Amino acid sequence: MAETYNIFLDESCHLEHDGIPVMTLGVTWCPTEKTKDISRRIRDIKEQFGLSTTFETKWTKVSPAKYDFYRDLIDYFLDDDDLHFRAVVIPDKKILDHKKYGQTHDDWYYKMCFTLLEPIIDPTQHYNIYMDIKDTRSESKRANLEKILRKASLDGSGNIVRRVQQIRSHESEVMQLADLLIGAVTYANRGQSTSDAKIKLVQRIRTRTNHSLVRSTWLREPKLNIFVWRPEK
């Protein structure tokens, strides 16, 4: 029997000329029927640490004072069998040669989105994809991604990818979880050491998953799946 899944897509350092070499696209996903329960559990964890249920979880907010909260949130993600994460990491987008391949940075961006989502989407199931609103171009990105996914899967009727929708991150605890995990993966791949709390969170993920975060996992790794993408030489 077909099941419906919610996929929450976010990104870090995706702009072509932002001066940051590492770029990460990532998604968290779960069964649609479990989304409310997961969101409720995350709000419970916030309350346990004296935070408002409307507190927006973000990698940029990780600090020594909130380390225990973020540690427990990471542990919850790793312990809940209904929650999954996949990231595509581009270690150095400065070396990309779009002209060589007759493409723009936007063209390449959608290829990376497809690379991110293709191993997740099962044509026998149904999917709602939610994208974090970033800027005034978010609607065109949403429409283009929907078109590409439906064309690639011969899903013109929208039976597989039923919805591609923009939302704001503060509206979704599961989207916020994507931001946190993308932040950790990006931090590890940038080799940063600017924050003891962030270093400890990265190390906790590494210890609990036995993944370095800087190398690709098995393609079908179900919990924390990472693909480090490099251009053809």
What brief labels describe this structure?
233 residues; alpha/beta; Nucleotidyltransferase, domain 5; 6-stranded mixed beta sheet; 37% helix; globular
Task: Provide the fold topology.
Elements: E1 4-12, E2 23-31, H1 35-48, H2 67-79, E3 84-90, H3 105-117, E4 126-132, H4 138-152, E5 161-167, H5 173-189, H6 196-209, E6 224-228
Parallel strand pairs: 1-4, 3-6, 4-5
Antiparallel strand pairs: 1-2, 2-3
Helix pairs in contact: 1-2, 2-6, 5-6
Task: Give a verbal description of the structure.
By secondary structure, the chain is an alpha/beta fold. The chain has one domain (4-106, 119-228): Nucleotidyltransferase, domain 5, CATH 3.30.420. It contains six helices and six strands, in the order ββααβαβαβααβ. The chain has a six-stranded mixed sheet with strand order 5-4-1-2-3-6, with helices on both faces. Helix 4 links the parallel strand 4 and strand 5. The protein is globular, with a radius of gyration of 17 Å. The model has no long low-confidence stretch (mean pLDDT 92).
